Amino acid sequence: MRYTLDTPPMDVVGWEGFVYPWAFAIEKYQPKTGLVHLPPTIHSTFAGKGFLICSFVPRVTDTHPNAIPCPYPHSSVDCDEIILYLRGDFTSRRGVGPGAISLHPAGIAHGPHPGAYEASIGSVRTDELAVMCDTYEPLIPTAQAATLERADYHDSWITRP
Ligand SMILES: [Fe+2]
Description:
It is a single chain. This protein is mainly beta. It has a domain at 36-147: Jelly Rolls (Sandwich), CATH 2.60.120. The chain is 6% helix and 21% strand. The protein has two helices and seven strands. It has helices at 116-120, 143-146, and strands at 44-48, 51-56, 59-60, 80-87, 101-104, 125-126, 129-135. Strands 1-2-7-4-5 form a five-stranded antiparallel beta sheet, with no helix packed on it. The protein has a two-stranded antiparallel ribbon with strand order 3-6. The longest helix is centred in the C-terminal third of the chain and has 5 residues, at 116-120. The protein is globular and about 60 Å long. It starts with 43 loop residues before the first strand and ends in a 15-residue tail after the last helix. The model has no long low-confidence stretch (mean pLDDT 88). Bound molecules: fe (ii) ion (FE2). Fe (ii) ion binds at residues 74, 76, 81, 104, 110. Fe (ii) ion is lined by residues 74, 76, 81, 104, 110.
């Protein structure tokens, strides 16, 4: 069902309604955590036709004493994953800072950098702040975006002596 408004609903004086999805107070988002690592979709904050937004915010990590809080290696065969890293120390990655963007097209295997998995054991919190968009159609980089690509990105998983 589609319902179309004649005017934008926020174009009023004294608006006290819910602004979602036009604005989302990510700092106030309270994510779910569990005994063991939960899949990224547990961090879903918005979904639309053909896409899903996940918000990774500072949180307590997995609480089981033998849990491995670091995300596991995976290959998302049904979607492209683009992540904007905003703040904090990312459990699974090194060399990723605020403003960095990663794009893992559907089917590309990716996961924690060497050592990150082991280093995450025993951690109790993460201070990462990042937003991921999964798309169910391929993302096609613009010519400008293509110039920003790090040609050696795939080498970041290689352990160097
Ligand atoms: Fe991923």
